[in-house]
Amino acid sequence: MACDLPEPYCWDESFQTFYTQIDGEHKFLFNAIFDVAGDRASNDKLQSLKDLMNGHFQYEEGMMARGLCRNLDSHKKIHEEFLAKLDAFTCPVKDERINWVKDWLVSHIKSIDFKYKGMLD
């Protein structure tokens, strides 16, 4: 499912899951992608994005496990596939990779993460 990218590229209320920490982490992910796009040659910014994504996925999967979400395994697989692609990014980060990660996050939140709304503790 393709979703419109916000312009400027930042979190807004249309991405709200109503879980305070998850929404906060999503905001940080938008900012980290924006930072990489603004300084494509920065290994530090790219590594920060990778670390933030990994940490967020671990937290989200933990909440899903505690909430006994039936789609945890498929959700985890989506995260693993994304991280494998993101880990292959090197500096300078190319336009098509920036666009891919921007689109992935927007689409993932609105079409995959929204499925757990109201199901987590």
Structural commentary:
This is Neurohemerythrin-like. Residues 18-120 form the Hemerythrin-like domain. The protein is mainly alpha-helical and 121 residues long. Helix content is 63%, strand content 0%. The protein has 4 helices and no strands. The protein has helices spanning 20-38, 43-66, 72-87, 95-111. The longest helix has 24 residues, at 43-66. The model has no long low-confidence stretch (mean pLDDT 94).
Give short descriptive properties of this protein.
121 residues; mainly alpha; Four Helix Bundle (Hemerythrin (Met), subunit A); 4 helices
Q: What order do the helices and strands come in, and which of them pair?
A:
Blueprint lengths: L19 H19 L4 H24 L5 H16 L7 H17 L10
Helix pairs in contact: 1-2, 1-4, 2-3
Q: What's this, in brief?
A:
With 121 residues, this protein is mainly α.
The strand count comes to 0
* Secondary structure category: mainly alpha
Order of helices and strands: HHHH
Uncertain regions spanning at least 5 consecutive residues? none
**Radius of gyration from CA coordinates:** 14 Å
What would CATH call the homologous superfamily? Hemerythrin-like
